[in-house]
Structures are given as structure tokens and as C-alpha cells.
UniProtKB/TrEMBL annotation:
Residues 38-364 form the AAA+ ATPase domain. Signal peptide: none annotated. This is Recombination protein F. It comes from the Bacteria. GO terms for molecular function: ATP binding; ATP hydrolysis activity. It holds the Pfam family AAA_15.
Amino acid sequence: MVIDPNRPPRRQRNAPLYIDSFNVGAFRGLTEVRLENLSRINLLVGSNNAGKTSILEAIAVHFNAFEVVEWYNIARTREGRSVTPFADALSTLDSLRWMFPSDNALMWDDGNALAIHLESSRGDATDIVTATCKQTRGVLPYEMIRRAIGNNRAAPDGEPVEDVGLLIAVKATLAQGMLLPIEHAMDFQIWSQLGLRSEMNRPRGSVNLQFLAPYGHRSTPQNLRRLTESTHSGTRNDIDALLRDLDERLHGVEIITSEDGRTPKIAVRTKKGGLFPLAVLGDGVRRALSIALALQSAKDGILLIDEIEAALHVSALDRVYRWLSNAVETYNVQVFATTHSLEAIDAIIKAKSPAEHSDLSGYNIAPSEKENVKRYTGGMLHRLVHQRGLDIRS
């Protein structure tokens, strides 16, 4: 097999993405966090700042090891509960470098960070990803800046610019979904003046993984893209069925355009024939739609949901999670979801019959403890939470 050193390796086209275990050796503030005996649906619970969201990010980075643009997109999901920019947003360099293990801000004084180490396995196939990050300084030719920002009208003979940046070196041993295990390495030089513009044209890999942030239902472009995919694949009827289950007045979802025909929008058709923009409906309907669309887009892969209960009223939890429980089988998706809600945990448990408890696992993440992960089987969750009313979140 010939591997292009400048192109991310691609897994076999029909190879599903599903893992039995995941180990965060080092990522952000996490060290040696092991998730063993993973199931179809995996709930991550624990106190605030335990690292639940960081685990989701680590999984996403692990399977997008050579996609630094995707690293940045993943990092941005935790910066706020809005899809619009805000005043204290981290710079591109800061968003990337704080993914690397750190105990304090002074670690950057020596110009180096600790290494990321992530590992997953399915059967005998193990993937290992490591990454290092170093601060760099250099002088950027003006022509490089001019090309990167697309300013072809600017004078071609401007002055060079001193700049600071990051050199991210990624190495991986990949076996899952490969004909033969391979080793691959790529370096990424990111400059503060250029941001990620230099990476936009780099060849991209492909992986069936979707990340849904707590406010992801407000991202109209992302939902439009996913709804278009659902329409093309002929699976939109499943989306419509979920909406009708949530509100019997609804009939289905459609894509419409503005009056000038330029701007596409998502709209919901009622049973009486009315048509309403999705934006005027409640957050619950929008969140349920986003979960459903993300799950379909993750077909034969992994769906990561941060705060699975976000924006959903307690009365809707049972119906949404019942749909989710059935859909993960239909679309062959493995789910990792964080939650702070005992009601959400109970609703997910109830969505599974006793015969399906093996498809569900819970993991309590405890911060700064040697044995920092406690695993609950689906049967244990049913007995402890649903029958006895115990709180496994702390």
C-alpha cells in the first residue's frame, strides 16, 4: 500500500466505526482515563469539571488525527452557548494549544507543551495517536500572506512580517478499518497571522463522526447540510416521524428559500398545511431535529452529544430517547453522550427493554482520582436509577 505523506490515510469505504475501549492517556486536563467495555449507547456522568466534554473532544480528535481544522472546530464548541463570535473567544493558536495537557498557563514559557496520547481498540485492532506542540517564531514572506488572505489586488512587494505560531506534529498507528496496520505522521505549521488559511486546501480524510454541541440546534447551516443529506438518502421520513411524535400538530420538515430565492431555510409543515420557519418554534423541537439529523449523518460511525438533555423539556425526553434508541440500531451508530440530568438518565434507561440493557453503559467520571472511572452496565443502571432512584452522578 502506497501512502501519500501529505494526505491523511483513509479507512476502507465500507468499514463501520465502532470501538470497544477508549483510553485518554493525556488530553487537556485528563490523564489515564479509561473507558472499557463500551456499548452502543454510552453515558458520561460526573460532577462539573470532571472532564466529560473533554472525553468527547478527545474521541473526535482521535478519529480526526490529521485534520487540524477539525481540531479547531471541536475546540470552539466549548467556548460559549452561541454560534456567534464573542469578545473573549480564544485565538486560533490558543484554541489549539490548550488541547494539549497542561497544569498551568506558565507551561508555555519554555515553548513546549506536554504530548497528547489517545488510544482506541476494537477486537485486536488498536489505533494510537500522539501529538506534540511547540511554539515557533519566524518571518513570513509578504507573498505568502497575500496568497493566504486572497488579496490579489494588494501590492506584491510588501514587507515580510515577523510572526509567532505553533508546530503541531501528529503520529498515528492505525489498524481499525485498514487492510493492514499503517504508521503515518504529519506536521502542521500554524501562524497567528494566517490562522488556518494555510490548511484549508490540504487534502482531507473522511470519518463517520459527528459532534453535537449543547447549542448545535441553533446552527442553521449545519442543519441545512444534514437535512439535505437526509433528503438525498431517502431517510427524511424518520425525521418527520420523530417530529410528529413530539407534537401531533406537526407533519414534517421541509427546505424552503427566501422570497428572492437566495437563502435556504428549514421550515416545518403542520397537519393543517401551515408552514413555519424552524427558528420560530421552541428549542425542544429544534434540538430533537438536530439530534436526529446528526445521528443520520453519523451512519456506520460515532455520534458525540454534549449535554444530551439540553433544550429538551422533561415531558419530551421519553419520546426523543425512544426514537434515538431505535435509530442507533437502524443506522448502526455508536453514541457517546454527556448529561447532568437524572431525568435524562432515567428516560434513556426506560427507552431500553431489559433484553437491550447490554446496549447501554454508564461511566461516572471522577476528577483527580486514581480510579477515576466507574462503569455501570445497562442492568445496573436500571436497578440503581430506575428502580431504586439512586443518583449515580456523583
